[in-house]
Amino acid sequence: MNVPLSWLRDFVDLTLAPGDLAARLTMAGVEVEAIREVGAEWEQVYVGYVEGVERHPNADRLNLVRVVAGERALTVVTGAPNIAEGQKVPLALVGARLWDGHSDEPKRITLKASTIRGVPSQGMVCSEKELGLSDEHEGIMVLPDDAPVGTPLRDYLGDTILELEITPNLVHDFSILGVAREVAALTAQPLHPPHVPDLPRSQAATGTDDPPLVAIDAPELCARCVGVAIAGVTVAESPEWLKGRLAAAGLRAINNIADVTNYVMLEWGQPLHAYDRDQLAGGRIVVRRSEPGERIESLDHVVRTLDERMLVIGDAERAVGIAGVMGGAQSEIGDGTTNVLLEAANFNQYAVRHAMQTLKLPSDAAVRFGRGLDPNLAWEAAARATALILDLCPGARVTGTADAYPAPTTERTVDLPYGEIARLLGVTYPVEQTVEVLGRLDLGATVIDGAAGEEPTLRVIVPTWRQDITQSADLVEEIIRVIGYDTLPTTLPEGRTVEPRRDPLRLFADETRDILAASGLHEIVCYSLTDEPSLDRLATDGRWVTWWERDRPRFDATRLVNTLRSDWQILRPTLMADALKTLSQNLKFRPTVRLFEVRPVYLPRQLGQLPVERLTLSIALAGERTGRSLYTTAGEVGASLDFFDLKGTVEALVARLGIDGVTYTPSDYAAFSPGRAAELRIAGDLIGVFGEAHPQVAANFGIAAARTMLAEFDAEALFSKVEKRMGTTGATRFQPTVQDFAVVVDEATAAGTVEEAILTAAKPLAQSARLFDLYRGEQVPTGKKSLAFEVTFSAPNRALAEREIEGLRRRIEGALQKRLKATLRA
Amino acid sequence: MTTGGSIEVGQIEALEREATDRLAQIADEAALEGWFREFLGRKDGKLSGLLRGMGALSPEERPRFGAAVNATKDRVTAAYEARKATVGGAALTARLAADAVDITQPGRPVPMGTLHPTTLVTRELSAIFALLGFQTIEGPEVEETRYNFDLLNIPTNHPARDKWDTFYVGSRGTDDTVNEIVLRTHTSPMQARTMQRQDPPVRVIVPGRCYRYEATDASHEAIFFQLEGLAVDKKITMSDLKGTLTEMTRQLFGSSTKVRFRCDFFPFVEPGVDFSATCAVCGGKGCRVCKGTGWLELGGAGMVHPNVLRNVGYDPAIYSGFAFGLGIERIVMIKYGIDDIRNFYANDLRFLEEFAGTRI
Questions:
Q1: What is the CATH number of domain A412-487?
Q2: Can you give the residue ranges of the FDX-ACB domain (chain A) (predicted)?
Q3: Helix, strand, coil % (nearest 5) of chain B?
């Protein structure tokens, strides 16, 4: 909302400079978003008096105008059609900075002396657009008769506009008078509301036996409707002062009657509507619910279809307005209107919001009604508007009024036990100061003494325009926002502390992040929304399925109803697609990219149920294992990361998480290259999959790397396998024994099978069996391979004797020969 | 064979002189070994040879002679050890000198990973609030409107709801009273969930992802991280809120940081404020980052609204509490001088690697 300080000054003396006033309002909750100076840039522009106008000798459409401004008297050429002798106009001299009146975009120009069709022009008479006041450029701006000739225009017309952001709770500040009341309270100045002559309460316009001017058919949605019949109006352009104020507040001038309704809405916060009464069937209106499907042509000449949750204003035959939103075209005030019915009503905020949102018509009126107005505003606002219309139309008179107000809203009483102030704020203020502060806000407080030793209570009368104040906490806010939050001390909470509990899953997630970052991977965080085509890139057959169920979830329950981007349709059920997408983007400028993400995926359940948010880990690697460096051999440089780089990362992760019982089994998940993918299982349970992305899948993401590594793990399943261990095995006290075993097995025998056979045979003394050599070729028959393992033996309570080692060796050799048909190599 | 002690003694002295003179000339380990064999070798060393020649002496002379030889042998051995240390040290020094490297060459590369900046700041906040006795908890990102709005004193259709442009999920009912499913617009639903789940005292912070159905620009993301704080007990005051936020900003931005409250409206707090901290960049003097105001707006806060306390079954006449919410990206942007929030989710390594060295 725009608040011109010139208007505000009508109602309150401003004791603070604009910047300080803005700061004070903002601190108190009425946020000033910007301070705009109107006319600050007007140099060399004065109030001029038009002494004479004559036709330009060489051009029919141009006039030569003699203008005086103080001691200056000059002749300017103008094409303005509305120029006339005796007018007061803004006169710009050479050198003035103005806006280009002919440009569609705001454009500054400097006025130069010029010769137009052979006649020198020594200045310019200005339109509102040229002064930056509005877009009006049809004619020059005509100043009020009392404008002081020769005065710099800035001194006469300059203004400061506060641009306010009014929060939904502050509907009472949504007007010039409301802000004036706020300023008065904050600066301890008296409020000077405008003098409003009261309206007669009479039915004269209709016969006493006739139905009243206004009636309410839907009292549940309309608390009040005031009608004023005015006869003998003359519709005309509004005077400059009125147009000027509307323009300063950001509204366009229409005609004097419509402008008055807008003016009063800005000043009082109460929207009003004026009907051409001669166009109303029966000359009366009724507030009723719309018929389903009822149609009306609104003022903007769009035919709109209404529903029964909307309110309309009807005459005897049809809807003539959408209540609180927009009037109808049929009864619009026109040049020939002489009889007016002025309506000031109080419509239900939800009905108006429903209509405003359904019809997408956020009019100034609807925005105000939508916040819930005080019904008691209507009568005074109607009286103020009537007085203004009578001023502007000397022949007009009130022929009748009506006030349908079945259940008047009355003041509310709210008790504030004095101790509440200290209990909520941690500080208290003298009772007298509190009462004084509340009084400034028109909150009349009476001190009721408490029983012996008890705090007193403030009984506060809350005026009806403060519908936001319903309980003691609301009053505490009023007190502190006026006294100032800077008076609050800083303390820390006392008393009981909470149980020092840490979320183990959260700690696990952080531990996982640390391990992976220490392993050289970068953590990414991607948007949690995706679309199905993005998921389908993960499959070679164009149809993504999950790796755990090999099925595609039904996304109804995780699909967005409204979205901002075409690739934001569903909550992502996997992190894999984002991993590959991010990998691809980064490979454009990095030879090696190693990424991970630890975030939830969203697994749909039934429609209407919240999805499962499952913490998940993804890893993606691609590019060179090592770049050129002093320490790498030519053969190593540029070699691609492969499956075993990823497996090493996974092994390090599970080892550092302290997880035992890990097995790796081949995976045939379709995102991977067959034969280069594994399932991670712990104690038999599937935790996740990892492997080299299928080349087609990599290509789907625009990845050109030789090999692309991809993994996804159910982090919560992984977490469930972490056992908290206390103590140690003590194995470190005795020197372990290390022995090498070299075996020749069939090509098809997995290294893991040999490892497992070794460990089983020498249980529990064999701690580990590490494959350190793999050989095919001379001395190894075709179809066979030679594996060399380094096996570590140890016992917790003794150093192993040579005899024991020899026994273990024989057990291992026996098992390998028997179970795997292995040949032992010397 | 000569006889007579003095002659033999002279012989010993001559040999000692020869041994020590030659020893002094030796500079390398090979020569030292040769010298050792020549003079101190057990079999053919000249000093041992003296003892072997002792048979020619009279039994009375032998002890004296033997003692003299042994004493000499000890001295020569000591001289040898000393020389050996010197020569060996010099050899080591020479070897090490030959082994020197250009220490300005780069080290062997070790892949260096990073944590996402939102992770870093979330952890930092969690650590700060742990010291203040707050548990860190998390909650669902996909929420019911009951928790996201209704229980927080934001009724259906109320204009206050307009503040939160919302993504709806699943099929949307047409009835205004239905409990819909949305992407949470703030972390505040966890206020209601936490209070429903437990009795006071409550002290929690809730970091997490939030969603707003609004266009993105340099300072607004549709998907972002927020941190909620909630403390409820008997005697929790707004001064405690100010003190808690002051401690937080001091830890984040430095010990001279101050907090300012301005009255503001959030339906789930009363009184409600927005809070700012003195600008971490200029210290409050006014700069580009704080747009000349000296203050950085960080978030919203206030005393938990009595209606919210009632909604979760707490008696507002007995319990009071404070709540606050702040944007995690905003803190990162202030701390690390980032001017475009969209950097966070572009996941460009050139951006992420900026955080390799900036941990707390």
A1: 3.30.56.10
A2: 732-825
A3: 45, 20, 35
